[in-house]
Design a protein that fits this description.
Helices cover 6% and strands 41% of the residues. By secondary structure, the chain is mainly β. It has two domains: 208 residues, Alpha-Beta Complex (Sulfite Oxidase, Chain A, domain 2); 113 residues, Sandwich (Immunoglobulin-like), CATH 2.60.40. Strands 14-15-22-21-17-18 form a six-stranded mixed beta sheet, with no helix packed on it. A five-stranded mixed beta sheet has the order 2-1-10-5-6. The longest helix has 8 residues. The relative contact order is 0.17.
């Protein structure tokens, strides 16, 4: 997502970030079905038409890739080289998952649901469908959706047509696209994307902690205009209103500070776009001639601020290091 798209409450579909692990699968919505099986009393086979006939919910949700900011880390982890652009807020429409689980009738020993997408490939020398699991407790949250529309229109192929999972508050790897199967299991899922990938660890010998909810973060739309090659910013002297967005998946954002050359001041916070969506912030900066480093830092309701030192890990996940933008003022 170009950072200038931070001006929109809801990110236009074509500007929303996108990560595809393998290929965009070729799916015919007319013949596609979702299978709910495993440790359930009544397995379900649902067509897209079946899901469209069920009660629907629309909600804005801020989604961020777990690797957002990876390319800002040093030494640089090997994976998708995101800078700060892997985030967006869409209005997702779908049917809540919880009533479907009740209809299927989870067995007493079911502890997790495994979500399988139609995209298949090789990662870590393992041929696999893209699969992730969540606990029954997480999947029973009323805001967890099986989404078939984005910003008021059917999902585009690259965003998961005909159906994807939406798990508000969690990093994007959890919201499995091109959903084909939901399996209730009685043992913790040991798939590659669950136990080998998306872990916070310093070296390959560690098991590490799983990547789960989105860490607190603020980003600004860089002011001024860019130099073509370096992308450094150039702005005129005088009043400049800097705007941005802040979000968090663990607790509400309650504060954003704006920094100029290391000196912090309070930014103005607006109401969130939704319960699970970002907040707009702004700051009126009087730009003086010279070169300046602009920063922004969010703090959540639990008192967690963004770090000033990089939270390095092998996979480069969860990097919510404070953003810096260098601006030359004429």
């Amino acid at each position: 997502m170009p950072l200038e798209a931070l001006r929109y409450d809801v990110t236009p579909v074509g500007m929303h970030y996108l990560l595809t692990h393998f290929d965009v699968p070729d799916i015919d919505g007319a013949t596609w079905k979702l299978r709910i099986e495993g440790r359930v009393r009544r397995p379900l086979d649902l067509t897209l038409e079946d899901l469209l006939e069920r009660p629907s919910v629309s909600m804005p949700v801020t989604m961020e890739c777990a690797g957002n900011g990876r390319a800002r880390l040093s030494p640089r982890p090997i994976s998708q080289p995101w800078l700060n652009e892997a985030v967006g807020t869409a209005s997702w429409t779908g049917t809540p998952l919880a009533p479907l689980l009740a209809e299927a009738g989870l067995e007493d020993d079911a502890i997790e649901l495994v979500f399988t997408g139609a995209d298949r490939g090789i990662q870590g020398d393992v041929e696999q469908d893209y699969e992730r699991s969540l606990t029954i407790h997480e999947t029973s949250r009323p805001e967890v959706l099986l989404a078939y529309a984005m910003n008021g229109r059917p999902l585009e192929p690259q965003h998961g047509y005909p159906l994807r999972l939406i798990v508000p508050g969690w990093y994007g790897m959890t919201s499995v696209k091109w959903l084909t199967r939901i399996e209730a299991v009685s043992e913790p899922f040991q798939g590659w994307q669950q136990v080998d990938a998306y872990r916070y660890r310093k070296d390959n010998g560690e098991r590490g902690e799983p990547v789960t909810r989105i860490r607190v973060r603020a980003l600004m739309a860089p002011p001024g205009i860019p130099d073509f090659l370096s992308r450094r910013r150039v702005a005129p002297a005088g009043p400049v209103t800097v705007i941005g967005r802040a979000w968090c998946g663990t607790a509400p954002v309650v504060r954003v500070e704006f920094g100029v050359d290391g000196a912090w001041d309070e930014a103005k916070l607006e109401e969130p776009v939704g319960e699970f969506a970002w907040r707009r912030w702004s700051y009126d900066w009087t730009a003086s001639p010279g070169e300046h480093v602009l920063t922004c830092r969010a703090t959540d309701a639990a008192g967690n601020p963004q770090p000033l030192e990089q939270p390095w890990n092998i996979e480069g996940c969860g990097n919510n290091l404070v953003q810096e933008v260098v601006v030359t003022v004429d």
